Amino acid sequence: MSLSEVKKSVEERMEKSLEALRANLAKIRTGRAHAGILDHVQVEYYGSPVPVGQVANVNVVDARTLSVQPYEKPMVGAIERAIRDSDLGLNPVSMGDTIRVPMPALTEERRRDLTKVVRSEGEDSKVAVRNLRREANESLKKLVKDKEISEDDERRSQDDVQKLTDRSVAEIDKMVAQKEAEIMTV
């Protein structure tokens, strides 16, 4: 692996960590209805689990209500059951061939619990980014040992990797702060 490959690899992997954090934070509900909240809910469809979004149309009716319109009428019960059994704490209501999902208001205690979850997700992402930095630095040390790059190149590259790490950690902190503010607003 060359010097540029190490840098490119660590940069891509750090970006993937940030994307994973964005996806995880999107799953945490803020009391407002948004269609993405049901993305990770799996429904049994002809023997295999698939996301709700693949068997139904999910729309936002108002700030506190989602509407789920299954593509096939027999799926209403299965989708309703999948949403109820998910870890989101939602109670869907079937209205003919449409399912309404009201979003309950969050209590102050639940908001604090959610901010703890958000901080935990952020900390996990920071650990992942730091692990990537460590792996990159080990790769650079190996390149020096194999005499493929000079020690000066290694030092400069380690500085570049550190700057990438600092930028990623700052982005993680920003995302966590935004999500916490979103959760705490009533």
From TrEMBL:
It is found in: Cytoplasm. The keyword Plastid does not apply. Keywords: Cytoplasm, Protein biosynthesis. One of its GO terms (biological process) is cytoplasmic translational termination. Responsible for the release of ribosomes from messenger RNA at the termination of protein biosynthesis. May increase the efficiency of translation by recycling ribosomes from one round of translation to another. NCBIfam families: frr. This is Ribosome-recycling factor. It comes from Eoetvoesiella caeni.
